[in-house]
Amino acid sequence: MKLKILITLLILPTLVFSQRPDGGKNGKNGQRPKIGTVTGKISDADTQDNLEFVTVALYAVRDTSFITGASSDQQGRFKVSEVPAGKMFAKISFIGYDEYISEPFIIKPDQKDKFLGNITLQSSAKSLDEVTVTAERDVMELGIDRKTFNVSQDLNSVGGSMTDALKNIPSIDVDSEGTLSLRGSENVTIFIDGKPSNLTSSSDADILDQIPASSIERVEVITNPSAKYDPEGTSGIINIILKKDRKGGINGNVSASVGNNNKYNLSAGVNARVSKVNVYANYSGRYQERYVDKTQHQNNLDANGNITDYNNQTSHRDDQRYSHLFKGGIDYDINDYNNVYFSATYNTGYNNKNEQLNLDYFNADGSVIDKVYRVNETNRNSENQEYNFGYRKTFVNPGQSLDISGQYSDGLRTTDGFYTEYDNTNGLVSDPMFEQRNNSPERNKIYLGQIDYVQPIGEKGTLETGWRSTGRDIETDFFSESMNGGMWTPDDSLNNNFNYSEQVHALYVMYRHDFGNWGLQGGLRAEQAYTTSQLEDNAVTEAQTVHNDYFALYPTLHIAYKFSDMREASIGYSRRVNRPRGRTLNPFPDYSNPQSLRQGNPYLQPEFIDALEATYQHGWENITLTGSLYYRYTHDAIQRVQSARPDGVMVMTWDNVDNSQSYGAEAIATYNMTSWWKFTGSANVYNLIISGDAGDLDLSNQAWAMTGKLMSSTNLTKTLSLQVTGRFSSKRATAQGYIAPMGGVDMAVSQKLFKGKGTLQARVTDVFNTYKFNVYSEGIGFNSDMTYDWESRVGYLTFSYRFGQAAKKPKKKGKSSSSEDSMDMMD
Which residues lie below 8 Å from residue 488, measured CB to CB, with a gap of 6+? Predict the structure, then answer.
């Protein structure tokens, strides 16, 4: 794509120069009255995707001399202004496509405007024995406010899930539980196709494992979003763009994967496009069994820091999960300027966790206090449905558009827990001394309405404005009962009901203008938020209702400068917010582990973030280097807080501290060492400073940290590829301790089959079995060291196959797919 843009930018100045009286073959063109305008739209004949940076050149019929020209915008639309009177034709060309030549037409005083229609370009890629030859897209593309990563070239995510794809992207890290972090912060907003979703609103990241990596078109990492985007998330937005196949005819794909220790994946999709209608359906199913071993040592301390007693915890947990995801949709092009769409997604999942936990308690001298063997079994069922619909209108004026969209999603997750404790002090006793079971359904509904309007201002300016309203309702019930005298008795002191509702209404305006090599984009977003947290009373807890309504302004500013086609720089500022919700607000403790409780804080306030970032990109013949410097200042920063009760039980909650600061540098490099061997590397070095306290607990901490990734991609033959990916994370600071360094290496080999339509791939994750998670924490009355060792080294074998053929279209010169008359009827 960059090569196409570069060539286009090189050609256009030459064409424009040649229209001078001394530059073209016929100097008289420059003296004719410039009264006309020529417009149209350009798209790919197979995929129907809009084509940007396509060269449009006008030539005189009399002597084929060049008159003037332009290029298409992001919507594929072009506008050639100040066209002199006369008879002419248009020549439209783009690297990788067959040239298009229009029928001759006339510009004169009573016919000043000419619409060439919706022009489709046919790919010029040649087919040799039916082997498809395609050019690779750049791994990363830089925009004024985002970095876009194309994941299709990542062999280590083939046959895997969305989580597998995300963990190989620079700036993004994924821990053992699937939790995402961006530049060291877990407070990141995840969008799918630019919208919030119940597919990503779960308190854990299990749902990301239900979406196959093969369904991802690209991932946008927006660390300094413009005013158009939701300002939520401390570190920014991860926007996952799913593939939308719009090829003509009927096309499809199927993929199956098998991994050691009972891991199976299956996905399939079909797309049919006939004339103005595009219909698609996709399915993915996953079944996996995994295990994780955990060890924890906790010291309980007196006021002088001396150990009073301690405990050791060791556990082994087996996870069994399966899921099904269905998605279908329809797009209808009413005409060249109006499109409507609808899609529906349904997914269901099941996750069983069976944990055997040993809790051993000792005095300071090592004498035994108590030993308990506990069995925790949780069964979680989830069901989500989501509907998206919208209308899009474009206009004759290139770049002008109106989008109206809506979304409704409803997710239900039900967790059933069964907990049994046995006395193990003098050897395991067969009869349990404690039995408990509970049921906890959680319903999450999201409502969204949105209007976006884009209006070009002159030749260099663009005004964008819009409205967005989002509603969210979360209902959580918890019912527990314990065995008492051979009968199940309700635990009235534990049972509770917690509800959270949220409405956010926003208006935004944004303006962008180009001044030569300079680009300026500024915007302002105004939001009114209404939130309510409500806990119903029970035997020991009074009802609590907390309202938190607030109005906030979120300004953004981006400035970019293009030194040349290979060098550009930008600087941006944005204000953001992180709103607490769900488990961080629910004040009722989670008793699934009696030694480690977790409870929310209903008085938790949102944290506000000021973010500043400067980026520079320089390209050479075989190397592209992108460097960024960034700074984040967080007001009322939300931090996890741990404390020990007098009985030694750990309690974890959340609280606002004074502030936190993070600043650092990030570098991303691609190096094409040869035509068949390419490297992509990234490194992020940052300093996290936490300042503040929670009651008597000092939460101030500071430490430097680093993360790095390196990917080697080798084409061993024309059909055989090898990829090796390494990841490393240094020691990182938390509010009360640190996370130890960790890293691992993945490897994949891929062989194309059946003349390019099929692919057989083998991959191994964490080849050297080094990826472990260790965290150290300390506070008033305790210190703790905990290690997770999960099944990270897994081998997979995946086969995928593409089928179908695009509908054949007759090649025509001088005719487009829509006439001038149809355009006149529209507007």
Answer: 437, 481, 482
DSSP-derived 3-state class of residue 646 = coil
pLDDT average, residue stretch 103-112: 88
Question: Do the beta carbons of residue 739 and residue 730 sit within 8 Å?
Answer: no
The DSSP line for 237-299 is EEEEEEP----SEEEEEEEEEEETTTEEEEEEEEEEEETTEEEEEEEEEEEEEEEEEEEEEEE
pLDDT of residue 25: 39
Residue 671 pairs in a beta bridge with 623, 679
pTM for this predicted structure: 0.77
The structure tokens listed for 439 are 């049921």
H or E element at residue 737: strand 737-739
Find out whether 565 and 9 touch, Cβ atoms under 8 Å. yes
Domains of the chain: 2-127 (2.60.40.10), 140-242 (2.170.130.10), 249-449+479-515+526-540+554-647+654-805 (2.40.170)
Cα–Cα–Cα angle for 779, 780, 781, rounded to 5 degrees: 105
Q: Quick check: 331 and 278 in contact, CB under 8 A?
A: yes
SS3 (DSSP) at 126:
coil
Dist CA 374 CA 315 (whole Å): 9
Kindly tell me the burial class for residue 549, based on how many C-beta atoms sit within 10 Å of its own C-beta (0-12, 13-18, 19 or more): exposed
CA separation for the pair 291, 221 (Å, rounded):
31
Note whether 103 and 75 are within 8 A (CB).
Answer: no
pLDDT tens-digit readout, 774-806: 999 998 889 999 999 989 999 999 999 988 864
What pLDDT, in 10s, does the model give residues 11-20? 444 444 344 4
CA-CA distances (angstroms) from residue 800 to 164, 281, 756? 17, 17, 11
> pLDDT per residue over 620-670, tens digit each?
888 999 999 999 999 998 888 888 887 778 888 888 888 889 899 999 999
Mean pLDDT of 5-16: 41
Measure the CA–CA gap between 509 and 518, rounded to whole angstroms.
21
CA dihedral 192, 598, 690, 627 (to 10 degrees): -20
Q: Is the dihedral of CA 173, 148, 245, 168 positive or negative?
A: negative
CA distance 95 to 97: 6
User: Distance between CA atoms of 323 and 206, rounded to whole angstroms?
Assistant: 10
Q: Based on the number of CB atoms within 10 Å of its own CB, is 827 exposed (0-12), middle (13-18) or buried (19 or more)?
A: exposed
Contacts of 587 (CB under 8 A, 6+ apart): 535, 541, 544, 599, 600, 601, 602
823 by DSSP, 3-state: which? helix
646 CB-near residues (< 8 Å, 6+ apart): none
CB atoms within 10 A of CB 808: 8
Phi, psi of 30 (to 5 degrees): -70, -15
SS3 755: helix
